[in-house]
């Protein structure tokens, strides 16, 4: 099987690594340069979308911000999965909120803003505090504002107005601020015949809007709530492949924050912690193969490596640590790789995370120590 991935970043790279044992070959299409590249070496394999489509048995995507003309050409080839509609929805918060409503899953109250009148109405309908998010192009917390009180409304409006004016299709979604206890996400997979299998929930720690740490958790009540919501969204989309749902946990009640129609950073722990990782399961699904197991095999946490291109050798000496580099050039804050930390119990995992926090610089890995301490006090 030959799978073409739209996007040539780390997610295509990890799909390539996971597909190799099954003889699934991956090539990656860089949507900006229109080059077809090898996802591991970045070696040039060809040029142009038509060539890329011609060579592929199946086409999928590693991100949602893909120009619609490219998606439409892929759709017309009849080879694209999960569905170009799902990718378009994932890249537009307006459509995403409408999907959540249509699927009947709880989510934060919202109002779409195109004009100053809409902004006034949003404050009335949604209430304060609120979070404002650009409908197109947002990621890692970018393109967001917090509005805490009416007195700040006039000073924030010019920024919202500029954002809306960026492009004809741009708008801003105003959302009620949710005072959540924690953020969790569910990564799951749906096959062509409609079979659904989900991984254990992951708890996510963000620092400055970017995912810093993600760890598999076991909470059966929350898990079944999340699975029900996942099923509703995946079935509404008639989805095929890996899908991620991000949630706010408010006293044990989940609200969907957003969806990602692809493999997800909060599912990287599955490489060491689950029977079959999210990358292999995505490929299995889009290639029409039976799904692999999604059960937890050992407690595992993932720590993102942001803006660093080397680690102290002490990390490699820790047998619990598995390093995954993405082969990217160093830039401040850029996702350069991740470390999966596995253990035979949650207590041992907390100890391993603590050891790692002593090897690594706290400024670059801010969530590590506090999560290790929190885990050592929990009874899971
Ligand atoms: P990412 O790409 O990391 O998923 P994003 O740019 O798509 O981020 P969101 O996930 O919507 O944006 O928001 C980023 C973070 O901002 C959330 O993880 C959460 O911590 C906070 N946040 C977003 N919406 C709300 C809300 N309605 N109430 C409270 N906090 C929020
Ligand atoms: Mg998010």
TrEMBL record:
Gene3D superfamilies: 3.40.50.20, ATP-grasp fold, A domain (3.30.1490.20), ATP-grasp fold, B domain (3.30.470.20). It catalyses: 5-amino-1-(5-phospho-beta-D-ribosyl)imidazole + hydrogencarbonate + ATP = 5-carboxyamino-1-(5-phospho-D-ribosyl)imidazole + ADP + phosphate + 2 H(+). ATP binds at residues 93, 133, 138-144, 175-178, 183, 206, 257-258. InterPro entries: ATP-grasp, ATP-grasp_carboxylate-amine, ATP_grasp_subdomain_1, PreATP-grasp_dom_sf, PurK, PurK_C, PurT/PurK_preATP-grasp, Rudment_hybrid_motif. One of its GO terms (molecular function) is 5-(carboxyamino)imidazole ribonucleotide synthase activity. Its EC number is 6.3.4.18. Residues 97-287 form the ATP-grasp domain. Pathway: Purine metabolism; IMP biosynthesis via de novo pathway; 5-amino-1-(5-phospho-D-ribosyl)imidazole-4-carboxylate from 5-amino-1-(5-phospho-D-ribosyl)imidazole (N5-CAIR route): step 1/2. Keywords: ATP-binding, Ligase, Nucleotide-binding, Purine biosynthesis. NCBIfam families: PRK06019.1-5 (NF004679), purK (TIGR01161). Catalyzes the ATP-dependent conversion of 5-aminoimidazole ribonucleotide (AIR) and HCO(3)- to N5-carboxyaminoimidazole ribonucleotide (N5-CAIR). Catalyzes the ATP-dependent conversion of 5-aminoimidazole ribonucleotide (AIR) and HCO(3)(-) to N5-carboxyaminoimidazole ribonucleotide (N5-CAIR). Belongs to the PurK/PurT family. HAMAP family: PurK (MF_01928). Homodimer. This is N5-carboxyaminoimidazole ribonucleotide synthase. It comes from Vibrio algarum. The lineage of its organism: Bacteria, Pseudomonadati, Pseudomonadota, Gammaproteobacteria, Vibrionales.
